[in-house]
UniProtKB/TrEMBL annotation:
One of its GO terms (biological process) is triglyceride biosynthetic process. Pfam families: DAGAT (PF03982). This is Acyltransferase. It catalyses: 2,3-di-(9Z)-octadecenoyl-sn-glycerol + (9Z)-octadecenoyl-CoA = 1,2,3-tri-(9Z-octadecenoyl)-glycerol + CoA; 1,2-di-(9Z-octadecenoyl)-sn-glycerol + (9Z)-octadecenoyl-CoA = 1,2,3-tri-(9Z-octadecenoyl)-glycerol + CoA; 1,3-di-(9Z-octadecenoyl)-glycerol + (9Z)-octadecenoyl-CoA = 1,2,3-tri-(9Z-octadecenoyl)-glycerol + CoA; all-trans-retinol + an acyl-CoA = an all-trans-retinyl ester + CoA. It comes from Gasterosteus aculeatus aculeatus. Pathway: Glycerolipid metabolism; triacylglycerol biosynthesis; Lipid metabolism. It is found in: Cytoplasm, Perinuclear region; Endoplasmic reticulum membrane; Lipid droplet. Its main location: cytoplasm. Belongs to the diacylglycerol acyltransferase family. Keywords: Acyltransferase, Cytoplasm, Endoplasmic reticulum, Glycerol metabolism, Lipid biosynthesis, Lipid droplet, Lipid metabolism, Membrane, Transferase, Transmembrane, Transmembrane helix.
Length: 350
């Protein structure tokens, strides 16, 4: 504000200088309050989301069951009936709400880090896409903000493309959370849900898969860019089977949101973490961010480090040519890794 006011001193010379100094005093008086208010709103926006991520599913489930034991049992009964009727909606394209995706709270969420989405190539609404997103980080802030909301302007940058961020199917068994997730266009990450979007939902679909998944979140720490990709071929197989294009997406800074105690492979705690992850689906990461009131204290508020998400060129054109050669060679060989590939249906290579 001061810079703008100072930019016009020539215009307000003489009698105007007292007005200018009064305006500058006024702006100084209000400016820190406005700036602080913005920062507080940003922290609250991120904190409410992290608490929702961690506790909304469990909390709503407990509340629904508890309400059955109160005078409000009818509300629980009606919602439960709705849940049964609506059970498969998440796997059938969900229920996206542009109103929820455009909530102002997501702009404060974006500005906290800040999160930026950089477009490098156009995408065609006549095609379907699988975005391979990396890295997971702890809570996939970049994936959620860019593809679960309109805060970074996805629809403006990619007109005609509908992003569907894929997350663990277990989330869609949680009352209220399932509806909240679907409003952001978020869908289950299982095969039949992705298949539906790529083959029964028209074109212009972009299914965003955080390829490394929960196991990749166990590898994240500030400054590290470890991705879990080696044995992950399912998303490629799906793209080939459905004739969709693959788009690599990388979020620089995603791993800088929290600090994590990373246990060495083979140690007792690492084994416990991986076993738990297999059982419960999500990764029991030992992480911390900063506190709510004191900057140097520990808490679940992420560190405000920039997250820059880069959407790269659709790789399918190159991939198609390579795979055409690979497919030709595999159909002539009957042993080795090719057999694995041969068991899949023939990719729809154009
Ligand atoms: C405006 C709305 C506001 C709402 C706000 C609400 C509050 C916030 C609350 C809530 C969170 C919001 C959401 C944030 C974002 C979260 C992001 C995630 O959830 S990342 C986890 C999902 N990504 C994966 O699991 C990747 C791996 N999965 C896949 O690629 C696909 O599932 C698929 C079908 C392509 C897998 O194909 P294949 O079965 O051939 O598997 P192959 O590519 O060989 O990879 C094997 C790995 O994939 C896992 N996998 C396979 N199917 C899976 C499935 N259905 N679910 C989970 N993992 C699966 C396996 O466990 C294995 O992982 P192993 O190596 O053991 O750690
Ligand atoms: C101020 C209030 C804060 C509320 C804190 C409640 C604590 C709840 C503890 C554990 C529940 C965590 C539920 C996580 C739900 C995950 C939903 C999801 O979709 O995750 C996606 C998944 C794959 O992408 O993401 C991850 O796996 C990344 C890690 C998620 C962070 C989980 C951190 C849990 C930390 C410790 C858990 C301790 C072990 C819990 C055992 C539970 C036994 C049933």
């Amino acid at each position: 504000m001061k810079t703008i006011l100072a930019a016009y001193p020539g215009v307000l010379k003489g009698t105007g200088s007292s007005i200018l100094s009064a305006l500058q005093d006024l702006s100084v008086a209000f400016w820190p309050c406005r700036y602080k208010m913005e920062k507080h709103l940003q922290v609250i926006s991120v904190l409410q989301w992290v608490i929702s991520f961690l506790a909304m599913g469990a909390a709503c489930t407990v509340l629904l069951i508890y309400m059955f034991c109160t005078d409000c049992w009818l509300i629980s009964a009606i919602y439960t009936a709705w849940l049964i009727v609506d059970w498969n909606t998440p796997k059938r394209g969900g229920r996206r709400s542009s109103w929820v995706r455009n909530w102002t709270v997501w702009t404060y969420f974006r500005d906290y880090f800040p999160i930026r989405l950089i477009k490098t190539h156009n995408l065609l609404p006549s095609r379907n896409y699988i975005f391979g997103y990396h890295p997971h980080g702890i809570f996939c802030f970049g994936a959620f903000c860019n593809f679960g909301t309109e805060a970074t302007g996805f629809t403006k940058k990619f007109p005609g493309i509908k992003p569907s961020l894929a997350t663990l199917a277990g989330n869609f068994r949680m009352p209220v959370l399932r509806d909240y997730l679907m409003s952001g266009g978020i869908c289950p990450v299982n095969k039949n849900s992705i298949d539906y979007l790529l083959s029964c939902n028209g074109t212009g679909n972009a299914v965003v898969i955080v390829v490394g998944g929960a196991s990749e979140s166990l590898q994240c720490a500030p400054g590290l860019n470890t991705v879990t990709l080696k044995n992950r071929k399912g998303f490629v197989r799906l793209a080939l089977q459905r004739g969709s294009d693959l788009v690599p997406v990388y979020s620089f800074g995603e791993n800088d949101a929290y600090k994590q105690v990373i246990f060495e492979e083979g140690t007792y705690w690492r084994t416990i973490q991986k076993r738990l992850q297999k059982i419960i689906g999500f990764a029991p990461c030992l992480f911390h961010g900063c506190g709510l009131f004191f900057g140097n204290s520990w808490g679940i508020v992420p560190y405000g480090n920039p997250i820059t998400t880069l959407e790269s060129q659709s790789q399918c054109q190159k991939l198609r040519i390579q795979l055409r050669r690979w497919w030709t060679c595999t159909t002539q060989c009957t042993s080795g890794p090719c057999r694995t590939f041969l068991t899949g249906t023939r990719p729809a290579l154009a």
